Amino acid sequence: MLDMLVQGFASVLTLPSLGMIAVGVFVGIAFGSVPGLTTTMAVALCLPLTFGMDPSVAMSLLMGLYIGGTSGGLISAILINIPGTPASVATCFDGSPMAKRGEAGKALGVGVVFSAFGTLMSIIALMFIAPPLAEFALQFTPVEYFALALFALTMIGTLSGKQLAKGITVGILGVVLSFVGIAPIDAVPRFTFGFHELDGGFDILPALIGLFAVAEILNEAQTKQELKKGNILTNFKIKGFGFSLKELVSQIYNMIRSALIGIGIGILPGIGAGTANIVAYSVAKSQDKNPEKYGTGCIDGIVASETSNNASIGGAIVPLLTLGIPGDTVTAMLLGGLMIHGLTPGPLLFINNGVVVYGIFASLILATLVMLVMEFFGLRLFAKLLSVPKHILLPIIFSLCVVGAYGLNNRLFDVWVVLFFGVIGFVLTKLKFPTSPMILGIILGPMAETGFRRGLQLNDGLFLPFFARPIADFFFAATVFMIVLTAYKNIKEKKLDAAKKAA
Length: 503
Prior knowledge:
This protein is mostly helical.
């Protein structure tokens, strides 16, 4: 492993890769720090730019965006009490009270440092967990891949929250859209309606840009609310990182516990940093001797939130690289990035493209260090981004979406696909349908179909032998367990809601 890591660092320690890491971190922080812009949107916009790049350079840019975007949300969470991304919701609870009493610099310093610690710990975990898991996954046959895809599709329940029926509907729609084009086994055209541009199906990249970038732009464009400059704290004092070595030492246990929570939640497909920061904050508060201090402006809450949300990065990349299953919406975008460079995530990725995989590990480490330096010296610059009017920002981003989609295959059809999925995403949001299950359906649909049809071919058209394989049985059992658990949670929540209304 050490030899491969050295080769990975060698592939990344070049001027183009280092430059892309710096650009990625900067753009990621900018998107993460401005409410309404997201890490997913940043990756969606920059994916087309990587098309002509070397895979190691492209991955450097994307990892920089991921690291910067996840961490950047703490800036607006602390300075204006609005999380830049869902990953920083819990940072508001103590970061904003600290800023209001004149300790914005200290709150930002704590957030930046422990974001870096959380990320580095998760990368170390990723390096130890991913290779053995990939080795285990080499035993998979099409039957196991079908069972795995089926299990991953149950994550739709997690992504849907209380809107289970709506989430399943959107997920099925995503699976149906994945069937458009040439069938994977017998090469029969399906649902193309005479349009030859649809023979290859909907390209994952324009679909992602439409659902997560254009739909968000349309949502933001219809809201009239602008941040008032007087509400944005741009002048704050910070000496060093704003806190003492004694305070750092006192948070070590909190940091390790929060990092483990973030890594664990990150590994579970479909959950991500948005959940990790809330869970870690809740655990830190429940286990503290003085829980009443949380919410009043203590660094403990910031440490728990920022360590866990950044620790989920390494966790989310584990199933992406080893099994080809995205851990969250950002890793769904990264999956598209790997695919457009001819890299198929899964166990064979470690054998056929080991240098690229360890280059990803190296770029994550370097991006974390760049993020630490960039946020420390550029906090005031990123704070000023909060005051850029939406009528200037949104048209620029929309133009980049269109240019990026066109540049992918140099065809206008992809621009129409972006607009098509953008309208779908906007309508779904207006109807309060979650959009993430659709992407899960589009990505996992082909994997499930191919595994199922090849499995039937291997077993003379019989489905019963699928249950004679232990690994597949484990995933089938996990699928049933997740369905029962999700249904139980929804029934319990409905009963609680009914009891509250009755009271």
